[in-house]
Design a protein that fits this description.
By secondary structure, the protein is mostly helical. The chain contains 15 helices and 9 strands. Among the domains are: 142 residues, no CATH class; 71 residues, no CATH class; 86 residues, no CATH class. Helices cover 45% and strands 10% of the residues. It is globular, with a radius of gyration of 26 Å. The two termini are 24 Å apart.
Length: 431
């Protein structure tokens, strides 16, 4: 169930003086949601659909301008230690990836002042802004800025889809006219894997230069191999499925990862699947298999992963928290890091979604102040939130709630309290 919000003036998340008139908008939207569309005529519903679409665009446009200013001023980072996209997902209970995408678009809108003015004057729609910002980058930005006035005029003359094709073509031409070499643009390579919590994951990203060619050709080649394998199976048993090309490419990616982790076949030990799973016991005393983030793994998948496994025992206390492994050195040992990954699931700062591999084992109190390298005295923080925790005026103390063992509470310089998170729920205890 999502986080409940109130919009009282003066509250930390409220509307304050409401200069945007959002109270009236919220009340109107609530009234619209309460209308039963089955009782209205088709003509009324069509008019409402168009009006709501226009309203959605206006709200998105206003949101982009607000988010752009928040990001430019660094307000959320200074106030609660979170970047704007992560804060929005945390405060509004939204999807982190989508919130960050919206903030990135808002930042790009800041490049195009004329489009910002045209949005206010309703000479362009938010859809026009989305197209422009999606193709803008530091290489073609100056050219697109110069072309703003013409593009705004064209928006009144051409349908959106035709205008979008024109803008994309212009952006491509401006990009290729420069000295840009995609092989030199390391930061342009991006890949994000977002687990959904139901055993699936969404993948999005962008590759450039020879990286794009290498990955594409490798996956295409592996997809061809898999196609031939499925075709042979279908010849033996016609009831066997024949996957689509998109499915074959997805399977090829998994195959490439498995091969990349394999050892020499001539070695004394055959390669195993390189993945870590957590085997727990539910309230019915049945085994439950999950990944480090707490996402459930089916019995079939678990059988495949547990072929010739390396077993690492991990003892939990009554609250489902790994017991201390002892003070051995200033830095957390490999076993301790594994225990922290199992317990925390990633960065514990509220709203952050970075996985354990991107995190440091933070001592609280700090090692120099007498902190110990014990599980109950450490937690995972990404590098950004590790620095936030050490900012002047910030403090971090163990959570005093007995129902939140080995959890933590930050206090900002303004006195706001932020409570730590974990990426997965505590396991159910046997009844």
């Amino acid at each position: 169930m999502g986080r409940e919000h109130t919009f009282d003036a003066g509250s930390g998340m409220g509307l304050g003086s409401d200069p945007f008139g959002l109270r009236g908008l919220l009340e109107g939207a609530a009234k619209a949601v309460g209308v039963d569309p089955t009782l209205e005529s088709g003509e009324t519903l069509m008019g409402a659909a168009v009006a709501l679409e226009e309203l959605r665009g206006l709200v998105e446009a206003a949101s982009a301008r607000v988010l752009g200013q928040l990001a430019a001023a660094g307000v959320t980072d200074a106030s609660v230690g979170m970047r704007t996209g992560g804060w929005l997902a945390w405060a509004a209970d939204g999807f982190r990836v989508k919130c960050r995408q919206r903030v990135n678009l808002a930042k790009r809108l800041g490049w195009f002042a004329l489009f910002g003015d045209a949005l206010v004057e309703r000479r362009v729609s938010y859809a026009h802004v989305e197209v422009l910002c999606s193709v803008a980058n530091p290489r073609n930005r100056d050219g697109l800025i110069e072309a703003q006035a013409s593009l705004i005029d064209c928006a009144a003359e051409f349908p959106l889809e035709q205008w979008a094709r024109l803008v994309r073509r212009l952006a491509t031409d401006l990009d290729s006219d420069g000295s840009y070499d995609p092989n030199d643009d390391l930061d342009a390579n991006r890949l994000r894997v977002t687990p959904s919590g139901d055993g699936t994951a969404d993948i999005s990203g962008r590759l450039t230069g020879d990286t794009a060619v290498t990955v594409n050709q490798t996956l295409e080649s592996l997809a061809d191999e898999l196609f031939n394998r499925f075709r042979r199976d279908a010849q033996v048993d016609p009831s066997q499925p024949m996957p689509s090309r998109a499915t074959l490419m997805a399977l090829a990616l998994a195959e490439a990862c498995r091969r990349a982790r394999a050892v020499d076949l001539d070695s004394s030990r055959q390669p195993g699947v390189e993945a870590t799973v957590v085997i727990d016991i539910d309230s019915e005393q049945d085994p439950v298999v999950a990944d480090l983030a707490g996402n459930s793994i089916s019995a079939v998948a678990a059988d495949a992963l547990l072929v010739d496994p390396t077993i690492r025992a991990m003892i939990f206390d009554a609250d489902g928290v790994p017991l201390r492994l002892g003070r051995r050195a200033r830095l957390a040992t490999a076993d301790q890091k594994h225990a922290l990954a199992l317990r925390d699931g990633g960065c514990v700062f509220p709203g952050c979604d970075l996985a354990p591999g991107w995190c440091d084992a933070h001592h609280q109190p700090a090692w120099a102040l007498g902190g110990q390298t014990d599980i109950e005295a450490m937690f995972l923080l990404c590098r950004h939130h590790h620095r936030v925790t050490h900012r002047k005026g910030w403090s971090c103390e163990p959570d005093t709630d007995p129902d939140r063992p080995q959890m933590w509470t930050w206090t900002t310089p303004e006195g706001r309290q932020l409570h730590s998170q974990r990426k997965h729920r505590r396991r159910d205890q046997p009844g």
